Amino acid sequence: MEPTLLCVLLLLNTHINSGHSEDDDGVAKAVLTIHPNRSQIFSGESVTLRCVIQGGGVTDWKYTWRKIGHSDSSSKRNEHEVSAAKISDSGDYRCLGSHQQQDSKRSDVVRLTVTPLPKATLTVEPNPVFPGETVTLTCSVESDSIWNYQWYKDRNDNVVSQSGRHTITGDTLTINGSTVNEGPYWCQGARDSRPTSSSISDPVTITVNALPVASVSVSPQGLLYSGETVSLQCVIPEYTDWRYYWYKNNQHLPDETSKVIDITIPITQTSQAGQYRCEGNRVSRPTSSLPSDPVTLTVKALPEASVSVSPQGLLYSGETVNLQCVIPEYRDWMYLWFRDNQQLPSQTSKSITFPITQTGQYRCEGKRRDHPQRSQPSDYVTISVTAFPKTTLTVKPNPAFPGEKVTLMCSVGSDSSWSYQWYKDWNYNVVSQSVRHTITGDTLTISRAAESDQGLYWCQGEIQSRSISSINSDPVTITLNALPRASVSISPQFVLYPGDTVTLQCDISDYTDWTYYWFIDNQLLPSPTRKNIAISLPDQAGQYQCVGMRRGRPQMSYYSSALPIIITALPKATLTVKPNPVFPGETVTLTCSVGSDSSWSYHWYKYRNYYVLSQSVRHTIRGDTLNISRVAESDQGLYWCQGEIQSRSISSINSDLVTITLNALPKPTLTVKPNPVFPGETVTLTCSVGSDSIWSYKWYKDRNDNVVSQSGYNYIGVSHISRAAESDQGQYWCEGNSVSRPTSSQPSNAITLTVKDSRPTATLSSDKEEVFTGDSVTLSCTVESPGWKFYWYRHRPDSTPVTTTSGYSYTLSWVSVSDGGQYWCRAGRGDPVYYTLYSDQVQINITERPVAVLTLQPNWTQIFSGETVTMRCDIQGGGDSDWNYRWYKNSQLVISFNTKPEYRISPVYWYNSGSYTCEGVKGNKFSKLSDAVQLTVSDQPKAVLSIFPQWMNPGDSVMLSCEVDKMSTGWRFSWYRTVPYRAGIPSLSDKSYSLQPLSDNVTSEDSYTLIPAGPTHTGGYVCRAGRGDPVYDTLYSEPHFLWSGDLQPSVSLTVNPNTTQHFTSTSLSLTCELKGNSTGWRLMSYTERGVESGCVSNWGSITGSTCTISYTYTGSSGVYWCESGSGEYSNAVNITVNDGDVILESPVHPVTERDSVTLCCKYRTIKSNFKADFYKNGVLIKNETTGEMTIPTVSKSDEGFYKCKSGEGESPESWVTVRVSPFVSPGSSTSVLVGVVVGLLVAGVLLVILLVLLVRYQNSKGSCFNRIFWPPQPQSTNHDPQQDQGSGYTHQQHGDANIYDTINSSDNNDNDVTGASAAGPSHVTYAQIQLKKLDNKKKEKLADPAKDPVYSVVKTGKATAAAGPDDVTYAEVDLNNKAKAKKKRGAGSVDVTYAEVDLQRKAKAKKKRETPNPPETDSVYSLVKPYTVPGAAGPVNVTYAEVDLQKKNKAKKKRATPPEADSVYSQLKPRSCPGP
After folding, report:
1. In whole angstroms, what is the distance from residue 280 CA to residue 289 CA?
2. Which residues are 669's β-sheet partners?
3. Strands ordered across the beta sheet of 1106-1109
4. How many Å apart are CA 86 and CA 1037, to the nearest integer?
5. Tell me, what's the pLDDT at 1049?
6. Alpha-carbon torsion 997, 1001, 1006, 1012, what sign?
7. Cβ–Cβ under 8 Å, residues 247 and 254
8. SS3 232
């Protein structure tokens, strides 16, 4: 220890001494300075920090810069420049020098202070501003006056400079005549001394407010009439001290300065009275307003009156005159009438009527109350009397010529109101309107005068509306003279063709000064007016007429008759040629004709219109004929002809073209078969010209003079060469001769006949050697020359041919194994047949076709959407493995080539459903198509959870069962418990609950057992299933709930009104009553809609911990409970809402033994007491006139279903639960029990009396009970929560370990003590049946019935032959075997044991029964089978249970084994079925 301390002291001393010596030696030290060295640095200025190392004797230092509070920076320069300093650059600085891992001392701290620039301040006056005003902007920087100022607008780079609107003076910017908002503006100061500039001022926007706008209002509004006065008012908003200026038609009215002016419209003014506007001026701002819009005063003239006279025109003696005053636009006029300027006071209506004797000058005018109040007066109308006039008739012309128009005019003075009547020959022959007689006003016009128009005419005027007639006119006679007649002649006369010219002449007698008019087809020819006209055809063909016109009368002649000018179409020449076609050397005759007219001459043409054929050595022309002799090839071509009449320059239409064809002599066709030929074969030479005529033939070989054969006349010539030899080789041809045209043919083409030197050999080949059954094989037999017939042999070549074909191939279709073997072929041709040599053999090997086998992996009967499916195609009997694969869906190819035998679909969807097949492919060989595998893809399934029992007692085993679609297999099951919803963990889709896995969460079995179940297991449970790799999961099941009879929750659920049954349309409150510090409780329900959370809107409203359903309905029925956020549960309550008229008020919670209970029968509309019958388990037990039934001391035997009936209806059933009193132990000794019973008996009597009095008192107040019913029981149509979930008929008590089954009696004629016969088959009895387990160890010992009694449904009924022996009842019991966990269960099933027992009343001793082989005495056998939901598969694992029944009241009944206590116990043991 001492040496160590000494060493430490020595080291410390050395360190101190060495440090002292370094200071003394002048170690380098950094000195930091600021440049420029100013006390104040402004923002934006530059400053340099300089670090100088004093001492050390070196220069290549590396400098480290540090700002206190910031990280260091390094540099080789000894200066650190801060450009455009900011406030953030202020602080304490130090520096340090480093050289070869040796540092200088740090410099002393130097403080750098950066001061912000002074800020410019901008003021604007005035702001806001009115249009046209001047604005002054003033910029200042503190109080210093040495600043210069820069002005900006809109952008930093937009400097405002001096202009017409902007004036800059010192610190002021003046803006003239602003009209719209401007800016923003800002300013900045600048100077020579530091700081050289200020910061920019805040921006200012100049706002331009609009000037007040003047407007002119007019009163009165609407139309203005002449002579009226109107007021104009100038309205300017916002201010009152205006001086007003008025303008008319843009001219100032200096005399009008007031706000309101009056304008009087002159009486003569009938249009616009001018445009008026105003504006205002004032002393303060704004000094003026904007002028108003102009207002146009439109003046309308007063309505003008006018007088209408009826009748109009001259007035005649005896007439009555009606005058009417017409004033437009209005109807409410009062009319004033004047005659000779004197008002007629009695006449104020619109029209006046007076006799013609009151002559004079009349006028009118109107007055009215509204605007306008009067009209302009009408002009004067003169009324005078006129004598009846005489009619004057004039006729022009007279006499007249036929066809002329004659006008008769009738007049009665100048009055146009007359109408006229026309007469001819007699007074009663009135001339009326007709086709040729037109009456228009005073004129009768006779058009196209005819002889019938001659005669006497006169007329008379009348005014029909006034019944006035004039004096008749003098009669006038009309005379008719005849017209001259015109006629047309033609020159010359002959058949006319297009191109002819003719002359027409018009002849008219009597006069010579005619002007002639010509018509063609009733159309006037415009130019010809001569007597003779010439027309050219065919353009001017038609029907011609002429007529003459002259100035004097008659002005025209009759039209001539029509002369048709008929043109005959130019005829077409017809050309015939014989013979055609022609053979070389023959003579051809061409004949041309144009009808039968002999005046035609003819021209002949070939090829072209200008190529005219003329007379020559071989061409002879005579009249209409052209002959061509010794026809040669040059004479071929197109020919036509044309006729001509030279005197009239008429030519016919060219004939149709005729082609003269020079046919070559026919050339025969020579065929030589066969060729080449083999020695000994027969050769056939065939010669044919190919026409329908008969020819004789000659055959030549090698030379023209070497005729080798000749035939007679026939259509085809045939020559044969028998036993061909080498000397027959050579060139052959033939010729033909005929009697008819042509007489000879050309020689045929030469054919060389070749003779082979040896017999040929056939060659056989096959397209396949290895063949599968069902395939086809094609054998090909080839020979070097054509024309062969082929013979096919199998097994031996010298056998009978298998077949003979004309082609060289032979196909074996759908071969079998027996078709294999050796094949040969040979060919033959000719007659007699000439055969080739046999071919070599070909071996055909045929094997059975391999079979494709398709398997589905996994091989589940049902596949769900999203799973993975693999199909495998195995080729059986296919030999090697080099197969490719084809896949088909619904017989349609989906994969044409795949080298792998597997087809994977992942994931699979509904559209992948179908029938799948596969086949193997190896080159051109195929396996058999596999059998079809049906793939059916269903929607993702949903697991179905069931719980048995759902209402458990402490120590019970509870089984959870999970089921997926019955047709599916291979599932593993996952089990969860519901917990309050939390994000991030597995949850239900509606987020009502999150899920917490149970221990051993995943099982291969479809059940999960909670052993033993206790209060901690109360809550909701969920399951789902999964299978496959990767795992495919179903949807989560709906949550199901498990309730504990020993639950002591932190909260309890109470109901108000405190009863299980409620009427519809009433109010119901449910309250979660808290215990301790539990928080976060919510109300839950399970109804026909499923699980619902919270007091939602369709329930009602919530206040504190109470949910109020203000309007109940049948859908409100269900189980209700409270649930905490930590997963705790309250008791559950069953609520039944009845839409009938009667309910039974019964306790909501269980009652304790020896308590008093009152059941109340309530009617919807009757509040007072009424008679009611009370039933227990379907049996009438009491009649009450008050509607109430009281059980003074409740015992366990009182437990059951209760309902009530009255004349108003029947209530649903409710279950009343009775709990054993906790103060009496079943194991107490008899002596203690007797003492307690005696003591309690005395106290009980007194207590019962008090309770009865108390209950009576409470009932008088309308309260039936104050206890809560546990567990909840459903209405009769849905007996309990488990039945809601499809569990069957059983009602289970939550608090006790009992299972209750309803017992229905059938055909029960025995009367009970209460007269229950009226109840019929609805009577209910409960039998306590002790189930004996089949365990060998416990076989001799019966279980204690007080611990786990089972209550079964017992149905009483008549005995039948199948029912068993006397006094024996068989019960069908549906057992759920818990030991078989793998057994499937129907959806919604629960683990409940049901015993359905049909009881036979033993009291009916007279009833005969047929009993085959009765079982053991006094025993009842029941059929035991697992319970399944209705509609599930039939019973399985059938067992028969022996049930020993004991009847206490049947003393005469013998028992084989005395029962224990006073219960009926059933002994279960395997047994064969005693009956159906």
Report:
1. 5
2. 688
3. 1051-1056, 1068-1074, 1106-1109, 1101-1103
4. 69
5. 67
6. negative
7. no
8. strand
pLDDT tens per residue across span 780-796: 999 988 889 999 999 88
First to last CA, the chain: 108
**Sheet (strand 135-140) strand order:** 121-125, 135-140, 172-175, 166-169
Half-sphere exposure of 214 (CA within 13 A, CB side): 26
Tell me how far CA of residue 553 lies from CA of 454, 483, 516, in angstroms.
18, 9, 15
Residue 1032 in tokens: 């495919």
Give the pair of three-digit tokens for residue 612: 């005219």
Contacts for 625 with CB less than 8 Å, ≥ 6 apart: 589, 590, 591, 592
| pLDDT exceeds cutoff 80 at 841 | yes
Determine contact, residues 994/981, Cβ cutoff 8 Å.
yes
CA nearest to 109, candidates 167, 78, 67, 59: 67
CA distances from 1188 to 278, 908, 1137, 1162 (A): 97, 66, 20, 9
Confidence band (pLDDT; 50, 70, 90) for 243? very high
Overall average pLDDT of the 31-54 stretch: 88
DSSP string of 275-305, one letter each residue: EEEEEEE-SSSS-B-BPPPPEEEEEEPPPBP
What sign results for the dihedral spanned by CA atoms 888, 891, 893, 896?
Answer: positive
Per the listing, tokens 């025109």 go with 313
Q: How far is CA 1288 from CA 33, 979, 1079, 1372, 1392, in A?
A: 101, 29, 37, 15, 9
What CA–CA distance (Å, rounded) separates 647 from 49?
136
SS3 of 505, please? Answer: strand
Asked if the model's pLDDT at residue 931 lies above 70, the reply is: yes
Chain centre to alpha carbon of residue 202 = 59
Across the chain, mean pLDDT equals 78
At 590, list the tokens. Answer: 């061409």
Q: Which residues contact residue 110 at a Cβ distance below 8 angstroms, ignoring those fewer than 6 apart?
A: 32, 33, 34, 49, 92, 93, 94
Q: Would you tell me how many other CB atoms lie within 10 Å of the CB of residue 642?
A: 22
Q: Is the dihedral of CA 1028, 1030, 1036, 1041 positive or negative?
A: positive
Cα–Cα distances in Å, from 712 out to 733, 738, 1270? 17, 11, 132
Q: How far is it, in rounded angstroms, from Cα 1175 to Cα 1183?
A: 9
Q: How far apart are CA 305 and CA 317, in angstroms?
A: 29
Tokens for 470? 């004039």
The encoded tokens of residue 959 equal 């089984």
Is 201:119 a contact under the CB 8 Å cutoff?
yes
Task: Enumerate the β-bridge partners of residue 782.
Answer: 763
Spell out the SS3 assignment of 154-212: CCCCCECCCCCCEEEECCEEEECCCCCCEEEEEEEEECCCCCCECECCCCEEECECCCC
Rounded Cα distance, 348 and 428, in Å: 48
8 Å CB contact between 1369 and 1352: no
Confidence of residue 779 (pLDDT cuts 50, 70, 90): very high
3-state secondary structure (DSSP) of residue 788: coil
Tokens describing residue 448? 């196209």
What are phi and psi for residue 1417, nearest 5 degrees? -60, 145
Report the residue count for the chain. 1476
Task: Kindly report the backbone phi and psi dihedral angles of residue 1254, in degrees, each rounded to the nearest multiple of 5, phi listed first.
Answer: -65, -45
3-class secondary structure, 5 = helix
Torsion on CA atoms 860, 864, 867, 872, rounded to nearest 10: 40
Count CB atoms within 10 A of the CB of residue 303: 19
CA atoms 961, 1012, 1280, 1391: torsion sign? positive
